[in-house]
Design goal:
The complex is a heterodimer of chains A (498) and B (337). Chain A contains 17 helices and 20 strands. Chain A is an alpha/beta fold. Chain B is globular and about 85 Å long. The chains are: A alpha/beta (498), B mainly alpha (337). Chains A and B meet through helix 3 and strand 12 of A and helix 9 and helix 10 of B.
């Protein structure tokens, strides 16, 4: 018996000429919570696929529970106790919770007929492993992402798992749900199950992981205990550069105009009686739990929902914002939380995505689009925001989260009359390096006079980027503070419901 | 399942629409709920219903089959013209047609599952291919029905005579085939792991593969089954009409797909079921057959079918949009101090 559940030595994996993994090592002890970190393209996903038997490595050895597997198949990996919870969770939205939990086992057992009784037994057994309560008859598509995740975890535990690999498990869930997930992980640990946690969210990984392995460009750059790391070192290892983060300082200029004013705005099942104002050059944070109405408020100002009562004033003048078109006309830009669905056309070109809000200006009287003028403007934005791309004609899907987010920003910044930019969860699923680029850019925009709203449940993000913060609870604005009076603990306490 | 959940289902709406429509026709004409009208309706929905059941399974698996009328026509035309008079029993005709249909379905399935081409384009292509073979090689003119199938076609399970008008309607044996097919499909889709695999593949192909389902095999099976069913239904159609007419099934694919969608079967896969498909077909048949009772010329039947399809699918599309834009924030009653 080995004390390691996984021992990977000198693994190399090439795709064509690209070295995805260039001789990496990874050791996970039994019952350990281990964090694998690294920026996009560092080889994290590749190593997961090697451990799960999906990719055969070009060199190096994979040892699971003391046994070397020269040719690891996916089935052999499962039999050895390796389970992967993919980022997309691999659940069936169109089937019930019961079926989602039981199907894998039933397929593996070669069952031919459906037995509700057997399905029930398996499902209950799975849920009991993490003490999770949910209606077995509910369709999985009606559940929250966090619940879907718990379904995926309990399903994985059915197969006598010894190692659970979680790929970016906290990207799409709220802080409260993260806490709950960590509870589940600690429980698993008590049962002797190791967890390999893949993430780049600083505060979270420091909280849960005992051991770290950091990859950069397919190579090991760090492996050691959590105590040996601090935030600065972590960021350095991830990005390979020193990053200095300056907190935002807002110097209220005399005579700074109030750009946006919201008076007693209400929307049924969204929020009620919200009032606030925003001056040029300010960065205003709005925080609160998921379901506090913060997104609904932003979407209403942008015009996606229509407020039932209340007023919105831009530059002191009352405006009617009844549609997204009205919002854009009044100089409001909105960077939505679900970038891939709400912010971008993933199958269209980068150039089209950036220029879409300005197509009218790029076209002549007959409505024909002037490609050359689009190319020029796209090129200047790519340079301005240092977006890493090969060709503006490439599909949006080819970009990483951080670069894609910069494209969403470029789309709004290219609007000449932009007055208020609302960023909702601006750095979700964004690499640490690109994250600081986005922060830097936001601060620069504010310094140039743009009014910015950042909606986020990342307390750190709000504190270091905003001069003022509003807290929402149950659809109402309940607190307004200067960030200079707050620290992480006090802001965090404000946003939790009593 | 509670009442609230049932009323949210597409099946419920379709059932209500059918009921309202039937009552309306009854009030207007007094002829709807007569024994011969009901038998007439059951008779005319037999063939579309069987096609619809096959198409429903393909749609749920995330595919679509536009070639079943071509498969049905070619299989039927081949057995009826090339095996004319060879057997005294209808069974061999059915078996050969099923086999031919299965082969054509397997071609569809192989191209779709192996190369991951879009099923609609593939089956439109093969549809043209199969019709071309029928017209080019076999010739396509009306042909008398072979005696064994003729005998089957004249086998009735029920004869209904309207006491008032003296009109008679007969229900052929094919109606029994339809009922068996519906029950068998319900069992396959709901009670077997293969049925669950079809739903799983239609819901999320990658997740299905990771769960250990054989995605390629499931897709192959579905298209083979659809082809085999088409072969069977083609022979049913000829023996019901008592003539071999090569072209009268062509164009049915759109109505059949529309009936499925009307009944809540999703065009992108994973959602829907046999009850919806049956109700969708029933509604389309009842509407187009009852216009005459409302005093509307049958010339107008396509217009009404079109309206029903658009209105029916719009209802579920609007529901879906509302669901997506719905807000769930619990706003506290009073502002906190």
């Amino acid at each position: 018996m080995s004390e390691n559940i996984i021992k990977i030595t000198g693994v190399k994996k090439y795709f064509g000429g690209v070295k995805a993994l260039d001789g990496v090592d990874l050791v996970v002890k039994k019952g350990e919570v281990h964090c694998l970190a690294g920026e996009n393209g560092c080889g994290k996903s590749t190593i997961i696929n090697v451990i799960s038997g999906f990719y055969a490595p070009d060199a190096g050895t994979v040892e699971i529970d003391g046994k070397v597997y020269p040719k690891l198949t996916t089935q052999a990996a499962i039999d050895a106790g390796v389970q992967v919870i993919y980022q997309d969770l691999s659940v069936f939205p169109n089937l019930t919770v019961r079926e989602n939990l039981a199907l894998t086992m039933e397929v593996a057992d070669g069952k031919k007929f459906v037995s509700k009784k057997r399905f029930n037994e398996i499902a209950l057994q799975a849920l009991s492993k993490i003490d999770f309560k949910v209606d077995l008859d509910e369709m999985v598509e009606n559940l929250t992402v966090a619940d879907k995740q718990l379904i995926a975890i309990s399903r994985a535990l059915l197969n006598n798992a010894k190692l659970i690999i979680m790929d970016e498990p906290t990207t799409a869930i709220t802080q409260k749900e993260v806490k709950n997930l960590f509870g589940v992980i600690r429980d698993l640990q008590k049962q002797g199950i190791a967890v390999l946690f893949v993430s780049h969210k600083l505060d979270e990984v420091f909280e849960i992981a005992e051991h770290f392995t950091i990859f950069r460009s397919g190579k090991n750059v760090f492996s050691g205990k959590t105590e040996e790391l601090d935030e600065k070192k972590f960021t350095y290892y991830m990005t390979g550069r020193e990053i200095q983060e300056e907190p935002f300082s807002y110097a209220a200029k005399s005579g700074a105009k109030t750009v946006l004013e919201v008076k007693n705005l209400s929307l049924a099942n969204g929020f009620a009686d919200c009032s606030f104002s925003l001056k040029e050059g300010e960065i205003l944070g709005i925080t609160g739990l998921l379901g506090s109405g913060r997104t609904e408020l932003a979407e209403t100002i942008f015009g996606y929902h229509q407020a039932q009562s209340g007023e919105i004033l831009i530059d002191g003048k009352k405006v009617e914002i009844k549609s997204v078109k009205d919002g854009i006309k009044n100089g409001i830009g909105y960077v939505p939380p679900e970038r891939n669905v709400q912010g971008l056309f993933m199958e269209q070109s980068i150039a089209d995505n950036i220029s879409i809000t300005r197509w009218k200006d790029h076209s002549n009287g007959l409505g024909f689009i002037n490609e050359a003028s689009i190319d020029d403007s796209v090129a200047s934005w790519v340079k301005e925001l240092s977006i890493k791309i090969n060709d503006p004609a490439d599909n949006m899907r080819t970009l990483s989260g951080g670069n894609a987010q910069k494209c969403v920003l470029a789309k709004w910044l290219s609007l000449e009359n932009l007055k208020v930019l609302i960023l909702n969860g601006p750095t979700v699923g964004v690499d640490i390096g690109a994250k600081y680029d986005i922060y830097k850019l936001t601060k620069r925009l504010a310094a140039d006079g743009l009014a910015v709203i950042i909606i986020s449940d990342d307390i750190r993000e709000v504190l270091s980027n905003c001069n003022r913060v509003l807290v929402m609870r149950q659809g109402r604005l309940v607190e307004e503070r200067m960030t200079s009076e707050l620290d992480e603990a006090s802001l965090s306490a404000l946003s939790v419901e009593y | 399942m509670n009442l609230k959940k049932i009323t949210k289902k597409t099946e419920f709406y379709i059932a209500v629409i059918i009921l309202v429509f039937c009552i309306l026709v009854q009030l207007r004409s007094g002829q709807f709920f007569t024994n011969n009208n009901i038998v007439d309706l059951l008779r005319s929905m037999t063939i579309p219903m069987m096609f619809c059941v096959g198409e429903m399974m393909v749609l749920i698996s995330g595919g679509v089959d536009c070639s079943f009328p071509a498969i049905a026509s070619l299989s039927m035309y081949f057995v009826c013209t090339r095996m004319d008079g060879m057997f005294g029993n209808p069974l061999p005709y059915f078996l050969v047609a099923i086999l031919l249909g299965l082969m054509m379905g397997a071609l569809n399935g192989f191209i779709v599952a192996k190369f991951k081409f879009p099923a609609m384009i593939v089956t439109l292509g093969t549809s043209s291919l199969f019709l071309g073979i029928m017209q080019g090689i076999l010739g396509s003119s009306e042909y008398p029905l072979t005696s064994a199938l003729n005998a089957l076609g004249t086998t009735k399970i029920l004869t209904a005579t309207n006491a008032q008008s003296g009109l008679t309607s007969e229900l052929p044996i094919h109606f029994v085939f339809m009922v068996i097919l519906i029950v068998a499909t319900w069992f396959l889709m709901n009670k077997t792991m293969l049925g669950r695999a079809i739903y799983a593949v239609g819901g999320d192909e990658v997740a299905a593969a990771r769960a250990g389902f054989n995605v390629f095999g499931t897709r192959m099976f579905i298209f083979c089954l659809s082809g085999a069913l088409a072969g069977f239904i083609g022979v049913c159609r000829a023996s019901m009409l008592l003539t071999v007419s090569p072209n009268n099934m062509i164009g049915m694919e759109m109505d059949v797909i529309a009936a499925c969608v009307l009944g809540g079967v999703s065009l992108v896969g994973g959602r829907g079921g046999i009850i919806g498909a049956v109700l969708g077909t029933a509604l389309m048949t009842i509407v187009s057959n009852s216009l005459i009772l409302l005093g509307v010329s049958t010339q107008w039947s396509r217009v009404f079918t079109g309206v029903i399809i658009i209105v029916g699918t719009a209802v579920s599309a609007i529901q879906e949009q509302r669901r997506k834009k719905k807000l769930f924030v619990t706003v506290s009653a009073k502002p906190e101090v």
